[in-house]
Amino acid sequence: MIRTTAMIAVVAGLAACGDEPGDDESLAGGGGGTPALTFDQLVDVDSNLRAEIGSASVTPEDDIPDSGSSIYRGALTLTLQDGSGDGVIGEAQLNANFGTNVVTGGADNFFNLDGSATAGSVTISNGVILPSVGQVNGDINGTVTFDGTPLALDTTLSGTILGNDADYITGIVSGTAADSSTATTVGVQGGLVTER
């Protein structure tokens, strides 16, 4: 069962501003030399960030940096739209380059929603920052195992930059998940919540 207990220390630990020496910009799951989060910690991060983002407004264009880069960390949740209720939560990391308006990154360290660890990783491609409207868009692809079944994800991210100083990147993930062993495809939806 997903808990909503606050873990401010965990969220604060994820709120690294800018690029720090030793940060692993390749993916989540312990980037920067920190250990990967547990299921309970990930759930708490997701819950806390959703609460913070709920009161944040879209960052005005003038407040979005036009140079430098920042690492955003948080959680990615994905749920199959086949009536099974199967879903996963993983540790997400975005690398936003405000000079080139390019976003890269992905998610790994996935868990089924019952708390059991599961295999998988996804990456963001074609990620772009649109400062004039405070948006981030891109493709999220990879393979994640849902309740014992590996599924190939073909999804898109429709995101928003929020907060007074581009503090958060959050978004909706939607697309399909394909099971090559049965040649079936199901819809998948989810959400991304990250902060720098």
Report on this structure.
The chain has an 8-stranded antiparallel β-barrel with strand order 1-2-3-4-5-6-7-8. It has 196 residues and is mainly beta. The chain has helices spanning 8-14, 39-54; strands at residues 69-80, 87-97, 102-112, 120-130, 135-146, 149-162, 168-179, 184-195. The longest helix has 16 residues, at 39-54. A hairpin with a 6-residue loop joins strand 1 and strand 2.
List keywords for this structure.
single chain; about 200 residues; mainly beta; eight-stranded antiparallel barrel; 2 helices; about 10% helix; disordered N terminus
What is the secondary structure topology, with strand pairs?
Blueprint: H1 8-14, H2 39-54, E1 69-80, E2 87-97, E3 102-112, E4 120-130, E5 135-146, E6 149-162, E7 168-179, E8 184-195
